[in-house]
């Protein structure tokens, strides 16, 4: 049987852990792709490595990008990470943790690797419900990138099967994502969601990502195995 390959963007958080498991459930040989882009929470890459091993990725590639030299985001050192915000505040506007064009850059490199691998599917863990206002996490963005990929690739020009950008979590709440991962046996204790962890990897518990994670586990009626 011919190997079905997929590239999965794996940050080390619970969303990317879930999409990696979903891709495996569909029978894909998954090639995990992570980025060291100058993020202050670079410890997430250790979590990405743990997930790639635990969920049996065929390969885990970590690419270095100097997005911190461009700046424009609290995640790359420009300003403080917002903390202690209410759910209403989190859902309103584009936060300081938005990294300009991040998903466009990441998906473009995932597309390049998919072409080399002969993979027809790219999995990304974006979410349009419990998200922090990022414009590149919306369904219309994913659809637009997929259209662009058909124009920008050899396979698309030659009329072969186009690359699909798969965002299976995009219409799920954080609780639904967690329930899906638990059904698939994901160990969320391996993940790191925090935008501003301590040197020992301990989450701050107050950034938007920590708060959304806490809310998700509470609404899922599950205990966070990472003790958050």
Notable features of this structure?
alpha/beta, Rossmann fold
> What's the count of strands?
5
The level-1 CATH class: Alpha Beta
Cα Rg? 17 Å
Shape: globular
Beta content comes to 5-15%
What is the number of domains?
1
Written description of the protein model:
This protein has one domain (5-220): Rossmann fold (3-Layer(aba) Sandwich). Helices cover 39% and strands 11% of the residues. The protein has helices at 14-25, 44-54, 67-70, 87-90, 102-117, 139-152, 154-157, 174-183, 208-220, and strands at 5-9, 29-36, 59-64, 121-123, 164-166. A five-stranded parallel β-sheet has the order 3-2-1-4-5, sandwiched between helices.
Structure, briefly:
The protein is α/β, with parallel strands linked by helices and 228 residues long. It has nine helices and five strands; from the N terminus they run βαβαβαααβααβαα.
Q: Could you give the topology of this structure?
A:
Elements: E1 5-9, H1 14-25, E2 29-36, H2 44-54, E3 59-64, H3 67-70, H4 87-90, H5 102-117, E4 121-123, H6 139-152, H7 154-157, E5 164-166, H8 174-183, H9 208-220
Parallel strand pairs: 1-2, 1-4, 2-3, 4-5
Helix pairs in contact: 1-8, 8-9
